[in-house]
Structures are given as C-alpha cells and as structure tokens.
Amino acid sequence: MTKKGSSKEVEEWVATVQVLKEGAFDVASHMLSELLGSRMKMSLVSCELDPEPKISPYGYLSFSGGEAKDVGGDSWITVKFPNVPKDFGKPGALLVESHHDNEFFLKAVTLETAIPIHFACQSWITHCRHNSNRPRIFFPNQGLLPKDTPEALVNLRSEDLSLIRGDGKGERDRSERIYDYDVYNDLGNPDNDKALKRPTLGGSQTLPYPRRCRTGRNRNTSDSKTEKTVFFDDGYVPRDERFSTSKMNLFMGSAVNAFGREVLPYLNELFDNDNHFDTFQDVYELYQGGLRSVKTFQGLFEKQSNKANIQFPPPAVVQGSKDAWAHDLEFGRQRLAGLNPFLIQPLTEFPMTSELDPLEYGPSTSTITSKDIELYLEGLSVEEAIKQKRLFVLDFHDAVMPYVNKINMGTNGRIYASRTVLFLTRFNMLNTIAIELSLPPPKKGLPAWNRVYKAPPPGITNWEWRLARAHVAAVDAGIHQLVSHWLRTHACVEPFAIATHRQLSTMHPLHVLLSPHFKDTMNINAMARSSLINANGIIEKSFSPGPYSLEISSIFYKSWRFDEQALPNDLIKRGMAVEDSTAKHGVKLLLDDYPFAKDGLDVWAAIKKWVMDYVGIYYKADSDVQEDPELQAWWKEVTEIGHGDHKGAPWWGHMKTIEELVQALSTLIWVASAHHAAVNFGQYAYAGFFPNCPTACVKLMPEPGSKEYETFSKDPEAYFLQTVSSAAQALTVISTVELLSTRFGEEEYLGQRSDPQWTSDPRALDALERFAAALSDIDAQVSDRNCNAAVSLFNRAGPALVPYTLLSPNPAPADSHTSDPGMTGSGIPNSISI
C-alpha cells in the first residue's frame, strides 16, 4: 500500500511476529495489543545509509506504530509498519524496545515483503533498563562476515556486542544478558561452616581452571575472595541461557520422580547413620520390590505415616543377567564401551614406572612382575604380549597418589593409587588379569604399601579380587564424573560459549554455527555449582575424594590440551590408534572392537565434513580467517581469558588458516555433543547399579591375619557391601544419574535445528541436509554393528548384554526434532544441556 501527499511516498509493511506462549505472556494477553504501543516499540533499520544522519546514523528507521492482533493463534501477531518511506531500502536490522515490566520470548519476526525477510530472534525481551536503556538489536538470518557488513549496519553490529559484555562491576540482575568471566570462587560456604571453605579454582598455576560466567554476587564475610553460594536455580545466568519454563518444569518433575518425595527425608538420616546394604538381594530389591522391601530402610519407613513406595527401574547392566557385571570380561568391556572409555591405553613398558618422588610416594617401579601375569597370556611372554599390543593398562597411579593420604586421613573415603592390567584374548575379549593397589608412606622416608591381586580362574568367585576391583572402579567413577564428564565437557566448553556471545555478532556465520551447541550449558553448569560440585554437595558426599573432588579435577586440567580433545588426537595420544592414510578417516584403531572409538570416529568425521562445508561457504582463503576481526578476537579471548591459565600454550595454534579454524570448530562441536553424550547418557545403565560402579569406598583392603580379614572371611559379600558406597551414597547417586541420563522432549540433536529458517543461505541448508543424511547412515551402521555383537564384536554388548548405542546419533523419527523423553540410551544432543 502506497500513500501520497507528503514529501516522501510511504507504504505499509506487515510483519508476522512469533512469540513463545510461556510465562507472563501466557496469561497476560493484553501485552499483545501493547507490543507496538507506548511501552513496546519495533523499528526497522535499513541496509542503506541515511542521507539525513541527524535522524539515524545507522540507516532509515521506520516509524513505530500500527496494530497487533492474533492471527492463527495467540502466539502469532501481525504487526504493521504504516509509514515506511518507499525508498527505505532493504531492512538490515530490527530494533525492539520494551518499557514493560513483564518479559516475553521473541522467537522470530518475518517481514512479509516481496522476498520475506526472517529475523530468527530466539531471545527474551525484557525492560530496556536491563539493556543499558537501549533497544534490542536483531539481524536477518543471513550470515555475514564483518567485511561483508553493509556500512549502515557496522556500528549497530558493534553496539550489539558491546551491550552484552558488561563492565565487570556489580552484581548481575537475572533479567540481564551480560556475559563476562570469573574464577571458580563460588563452591564453598565458609560463612555457614568453616569446614565448607574451598579453594578458588582458576587464576593460578597451582590450581588452574577454565573460567565460568561472572555473577558479581556478594563475597563471604569470612573469606572475601569467594562468593556467597545460592540455592539451586537462584543464581545469575544470562537471561537467554536459562532453561525454558517448560524444560525447567520437566527437569524438576524428573528430579522429583528420580529422588522421590519419600526418599529425600531419609537421606540425611542415612548419611548420619552410615547405613550400608546387608546383602545383594537387598540391592536388587531397589529395582524389584522398591525401598520398602529393603531391610536397610524398613526401620526408617516405620517412622513415617506415608505408605508410598519408591522403586527404581532396573539398570541395563543387570537387566540381561544379575551377575554379568561381576565378570572380569565385562569389567574390561566397560573400559571400551562403558561410562569412561577415555582412559584405557596399551601397556608399553614393563615393569611400569612412576615419575613421582620415591621418598614421598614410594618405589618408582611397579611391583607387578612377569610371574604375576604370564599365566594369563596364552603362552606369550610379557615382552611378546606388549609387542603384539595385547596388554593394556588403566593407570591411576601418579595422578591419584598425591591425594591418597589427604583423602584417607582426612575424609571418610578410602582410596588407592592403582594400576590395572588387562589382556586381549585370542577371542578379542579384554580380560582383567592383575591389579596393583598402592599407598604412599604415612611419612616421608617410611615404607610404602603395595599389593598385587590376581584374577581368579574363570568361574571362581574370589571376593578379595572383587574388593580390589571395586577400589579401581571407585577411582574410575571419580575420574569419570570429575574429569571426563564435568571438566572436559561442562567446564571447558563454558568459556567458548561466553566468548562466542561477547565477540561473534549474531549475524556472524560462526555464531550461527555454534549457538545450538551451547544451549542450556551455562544454566546446567550454574545449577551444578550450587548442588552437585559445591561444598558438601552431591559429589562431595557421594564420592571417595570428598572435599578434594574439584581440586583433583584442577590437577587434571594442568595437562588438558584443547587440540587433544579431538577424538583422533585423543586416541593417538593414548596409543589406541595410529595415523594411517589408507584407513577410514585416516586413523587405524589398535582394537577394531572398540565401540566408543569406532562409532565416535564416524561421528567425528561427519562433524568435520559438515564444518568444512559450512566454513567453506564464507571463508575462501586463509586471508579471510586472518582478516576476520571478530574471529580473531574470539580466539584471543578464549585462549587468553576463558582458558587463561593455559595462555600462550603452543598447542593452541595461531588461528591463521581455514584448516586451523575447521579443526577448532570440529573439536568444540565434538566435545559439546558426542563426547558429552558418551559420558553422560549411559550413567544410569552402568552406575544405576552401584556395585558395578561404586562412587566411593569407605574401607581399605583387609590385611591377612587381622581381625578385619577374619570378618571379611566369614561373610565376604557383606564385607564387600560394607566397603563400597553407603546406602545414602548409593541412593543419592542412583537418583542423580537417573535424572542426568534422562532426555527431555525439547532436546535438539545433531543435524537438527529448532528453527527451519535458521539461515536464508541455501548452501548452508544443503550442507546441513548432507550432515543429517550422514548421521542417519551412522545410525544404521551402529545398528548393524550391534547386530554382530554375538558373532564377532563381543564388546558391542558383552556378558551384560548392553548394546552400545550412546553414539547412535538420532533416536527420533526422521520428521521429528525431538526424541521421546526418558532414558533412551541413544541420540547425540547438540549441546551439554543436562
């Protein structure tokens, strides 16, 4: 519609606004009519320079006004821009200014011009006082490098970034969108109890750590360097990073279901009384008859008038067979296809040696001898078995030893430094054959304690061996949760998310590429700091290291390298693969039946191909990488601030070539998606049955000739259960991993986008289709491999009959963007969202 009679011809433009029907907007329909009223304004910015700079230095602005009404449902609004100059030009930005105290979620705005222009907003609109009294800025769904930005939008692109960086001062408001960095100084609660004081992680070479999002909360009175803690979801997270209301409701509902309203009142009493399960039948009753059938809890239930019962679903590891978890072959298989397949490595020297000070930590040479293990080597000598790459090791010696005395003398937990030797049989099964447990000298110069335990013959139950293996499993569980899971995914990805918001404009193609891989990560991390990894939180109360848990993860961060997070590099570093140009993906596995690595390399290759295709659309030469100021600022901030304790490390590279860019982006996406899926979503399947994966041990090994050994000999099953996780610890972990293993209905998976109009570039859309097709092919390959589990690929299921599906990319139907909620055991979400 064109209007005449003024100095400039004007016309009316119409836009369709998609608003999420959630929160205040769900009940306050009067806000719809106010959207362009006195308290809500929308304006368009032209891509063309304004010939009258005094009106707008950025470009032509339309005059705010028009009507709003429902069309097709109350989450869709028609907005009219009635006085747009006919020579306005192509709109290049949308400004949304709110003076309303209620917030709403703006999903998208589509301008119904001859060629529709789509603004994929996906952001909460709050009062402009939370945005430095400036309107929110949105750009169309066309990715543009800085050098391609229309001149009229250059300043607006810069302003949009500066508005969310903050000034590093003051406490953040929950309605703000400020992204800034801080150290982990918010884990303790010394004002409440001096015993809850925890060291600051990050900002030092002694306890280095990735950075988290700054909140600016008040400091503790008793320790002014640390922040006060908050309860669960009360802390600051940038508004757009918080769970949606629907997901929070699902999350809290799942939490209530997992913990059970009837379980929570008992946990404190169970922790106080240090109850343990008496028999394995009591353990199985958790999944068969429920808590009321467990003798350990019957006294507690008698005190309660509530007659409800809580029954956990049987974990996968005991669904096929109650006892298969205890098989040495199953223990070995889980190092390749279980919760923590990132640690196994070939044995390359014998005897094994330590790099620690022998005066402080004991002999540098392992006490495992050839005589201890050659019986299991099918006629080979140790040297021959090493040469044939058939001996493997789980080495928890040097990394754990410095904390053994601290934990054993200062907490309720009991741990050993350990080395576990495994042998690849002629049937390609990984058999656990010997365990060395070690304690450092109680004082420097005194003798250390070392003991070697050997596997019993097949079919023979040896409870002393099972106890030794349980100690190894408990340390492995701690490293899994604190390092492979929390540190290497949650903590290490958060600085990348912060830097992406601070340095890459929302119109930057790389921001568009990466944003799905950060969804909900900062929210779940903040919740973890308040209830999972905090002082006296779930980890400290349920895992052997107790108050040293996060400190130990900091020690592992010292040797963390970003380049080694790429799956091929990780496998090569551990000696589990070698470069081979003739092999699929250029990497040859040492063990072909290594389910995590086999499936993972397929997923890695698909991710890298997708990234190469996408990056190639926008970067045609290495000079494009070098001359992209936003990309260079992003990389500089990640390497010098977000991961500032590794500033200057040569392995960061220089970000000067397309090859470096593709590798870095592929690594980041791999960690946020597949790596996290591999270590998170199988937790209930394996750790839901705590004897298989105890998170704590509270007794050391019984010494022959001692009263403890006499007690052990009389009832070894009871002694085993008295050694591993207590009832309170077990219930806490079972409930927690059930929650963490759950997928929620709004999850977005690799190869999927929640907004089908996420980009207007057909080349990028085609590349995503090819990526999704490649992932579907991988799904089929994983299924085929699992079908061969009983024939030639033993480790795909093993004695426990648990198929490896954690890296099966997409559990959803082809036309669905979400999988069915629950513990599906398959599907790779885009992000670390739980």
UniProtKB/TrEMBL annotation:
Matching Gene3D superfamilies: 3.10.450.60, Lipoxygenase-1, Domain 2 (4.10.375.10), Lipoxygenase-1, Domain 3 (4.10.372.10), Lipoxygenase-1, Domain 5 (1.20.245.10), PLAT/LH2 domain (2.60.60.20)
Molecular function as annotated in GO: metal ion binding; oxidoreductase activity, acting on single donors with incorporation of molecular oxygen, incorporation of two atoms of oxygen
Entry keyword set: Dioxygenase, Fatty acid biosynthesis, Fatty acid metabolism, Iron, Lipid biosynthesis, Lipid metabolism, Metal-binding, Oxidoreductase, Oxylipin biosynthesis
InterPro entries per UniProt: LipOase (IPR000907), LipOase_C (IPR013819), LipOase_C_sf (IPR036226), LipOase_CS (IPR020834), LipOase_Fe_BS (IPR020833), LipOase_plant (IPR001246), Lipoxygenase_dom_3 (IPR027433), PLAT/LH2_dom (IPR001024)
Protein name: Lipoxygenase
Similarity field: Belongs to the lipoxygenase family.
Lipoxygenase domain span: 143-834
Organism (species): Ceratopteris richardii
